[in-house]
Specification:
Pathway (chains A, B): Cofactor biosynthesis; NAD(+) biosynthesis; nicotinate D-ribonucleotide from nicotinate: step 1/1
Structural class of chain A: alpha/beta
CATH topology of the largest domain in chain A: nicotinate phosphoribosyltransferase
CATH superfamily of the largest domain in chain A: nicotinate phosphoribosyltransferase
GO molecular function, one term (chains A, B): nicotinate phosphoribosyltransferase activity
Helix content of chain A: 40-55%
Strand order of the largest sheet of chain A: 13-12-1-5-3-17-18
EC number (chains A, B): 6.3.4.21
Domain Nicotinate phosphoribosyltransferase C-terminal (chains A, B): 380-436
Largest sheet of chain A: 7 strands, antiparallel
Shape of chain A: elongated
Oligomer: homodimer
Number of domains of chain A: 2
CATH class of the largest domain in chain A: Alpha Beta
Domain Nicotinate/nicotinamide phosphoribosyltransferase (chains A, B): 152-331
Chain lengths: 444, 444
Amino acid sequence: MNTASETLLTDLYELTMAQAYLAQEMTGIAVFEFFVRKLPSRRNFFMAAGLEQVLTYLETFHFAERDLDWLAQTGNFTPSTLAALRAMRFTGDVHAMPEGTVFFPHEPILRITAPLPQAQLVETRVMNLLNFQTMVASKACRSVMVAEGRPLIDFGLRRSHGAEAGLLAARASYLAGFAGTSNVLAGARFGMPTYGTMAHAFVQAHHDEAEAFLHIAQAQPRNVVLLIDTYDTEAAAEKVVALATSLKNQGISIHGVRLDSGDLADHAQKVRLILDRGGLTDTKILASGNLDEERVEALLKSGAPIDRFAVGTAMTTSADAPYLDCAYKLQEYAGRPCRKRSEGKATWPGRKQVYRRLGRDGRLDGDLITIEGETRPGLPLLHPVMQNGRRLAPSPSIEKIRDHARLALAELPDTLRRLDQAAPYDVRIAEALEQLAQQVDRHT
Amino acid sequence: MNTASETLLTDLYELTMAQAYLAQEMTGIAVFEFFVRKLPSRRNFFMAAGLEQVLTYLETFHFAERDLDWLAQTGNFTPSTLAALRAMRFTGDVHAMPEGTVFFPHEPILRITAPLPQAQLVETRVMNLLNFQTMVASKACRSVMVAEGRPLIDFGLRRSHGAEAGLLAARASYLAGFAGTSNVLAGARFGMPTYGTMAHAFVQAHHDEAEAFLHIAQAQPRNVVLLIDTYDTEAAAEKVVALATSLKNQGISIHGVRLDSGDLADHAQKVRLILDRGGLTDTKILASGNLDEERVEALLKSGAPIDRFAVGTAMTTSADAPYLDCAYKLQEYAGRPCRKRSEGKATWPGRKQVYRRLGRDGRLDGDLITIEGETRPGLPLLHPVMQNGRRLAPSPSIEKIRDHARLALAELPDTLRRLDQAAPYDVRIAEALEQLAQQVDRHT
């Protein structure tokens, strides 16, 4: 995982366009906004995430000498382009919705205001970071809503799309309300809780399942969670009960058992009975194995006595919607608002602000997208977070982002909290913005 | 993108189990195999990819001091575990199918033979690397088959799941037969061709579309591909024709135009006519915009005069199947074959080999999964690639892997080459393996 040269992690055309802008001295101030065009069929809203990584990227943006050497040997870049890239840092401003904010299609969640070559060059990585974490947070909070307080744990690393996906999915799901992750590096990097149980291989490597339970309990005495489905789930639950007393004598309690296959609701019922009968009423049941929010909801609706859920692949990859229809579009250049009119992909021009009204019940009651500077009723959602290439304030802790996300979910009307598709939330385009669009069209 | 500590990029339970194995002196030789349980509904085969990154990971596997410090402060690891981890390197053997090999469910593509704690600890990252690249290669080669020689370019970076996904998707699609990528870092890292055009923002930043075309052509004179759908596609095509003469006088020819929205087939027809009428018969048409193999096939079947395709998000995220149902399972420990019998997730025990028969037409004619050491008709697909933690030979170049993949696709029967679901390919379990499974079951 050699990951030098994040600055080269970009589409070639960004560099080619930068060369053209520099050659033409088109270095005026450009305004780009990031937004999502539409909701996937199984989402009623999005949750913003990824801003922290974007700001770090922008603050540290620079071309290393080896990057410039590589660009030079392609023969496609002039000495004056290379000199300009060598000196280039990100000197622009950023406005954004805080991470954990709920948002809807066409609402910008990030605005970059910077000299055109800079604002263009950062496009690919900014999109890459915002698309992924926003996608994961928007998926993860669906499980959070249906779990109704039961802890959820991210188990998705092995099938996440590479190293960074595993790492950032752990972060995005945690800020959306997950209790933690199995991903050790995410724990080390983000200071988030890590959880682990044991694998089937551990049981198989032993001659005897009960012996395997004993050994893993001794190896992590503070959080014993035993995997009981390697051979026969209920038989294994009986072994857990039998083991409990001797473990207790060693000062070790069995925190939980994990079910990973078969009819989870049925196994959970039977195992709960066995555990309770054996006096292990405090031992929790953790379910895992191809879970997603639909299955979590179905299991709980069926009354399955499951206390916590490990949600992996489906969440980490956002399997039912593995990308967002997102865009990073030029909305203004050198003081002139602009828009794209490509069929089916037209955008709203200019610098925008989103105002959100809450109803008397404290729930979301309609958003308005308007041009910046126009004050409207409600709370403005976009705030300045970076000026002249520097953060305006230290980043909020991930715990603070979690709090913000929790409030955001609590403010959702009930219809939007359901898993099935709701009637679209009321997002209006202000007259001022409509007029600006017409004006731009007349002049293009 | 701070990516220290790849070794901590693992599930917590791997470390806990390692602690238990070490405490119990369970350091005998373990055999794990990686395989995929079943085909997604829109795949007829898989293409193996990711081995190169796995071998690099294994060769460089070690815990850095900062990793050990972090583990120590969690309070969950004993001094003797930490000492063992500090000294640990990967000293095992690896057998694998070469990258670019076509394979089917239940066929192992990688076998790791190593002391149990090592073989267990590498599980998460090995799965993470093989799952992702194999998934992308298996998706990408579907576009390769339907494009019938027309160049395909990876444009997926912005919606790939983070940095490493973008990088490795470029690699995996290239080895599967793509012509190159827009991803500059992938070009620098893997020596693969990079391609770029221009963005709508570039046109919008100019007052005049024709002026934008001129400026980008001057900025990358060796590969001029003009994006013509920002406002009116056919009107822009006329501007391209008008520009061609003056560019020719500057020694610049217009290599292609790019269509990115609307009815691509219809626009391609009209644009082809305009270009040909204007004498630009050599100017290629590149199509992009939410393309996948189904759309590429439909466009070509409709007779659309499209010369090359940029395939992005759908390929990079394998959007219709964004993960594989893959597993890394313990098949033998300390000379004793073992298997998991969990409901719906049972595995075949022991060290395995896959034999492939070719028919008289040179096409695949049936695979046999058997136990290692049993010689059967056909070609064995698993080969030793690492011994005692060291590669047995230098890695093949990516060009050589491409050649292997091209041959593998050419050997596919026509039914498996189609996009729609084919009857399953004939993969049999050898009697020797069936017997071993029964024997293992009797002794568990």
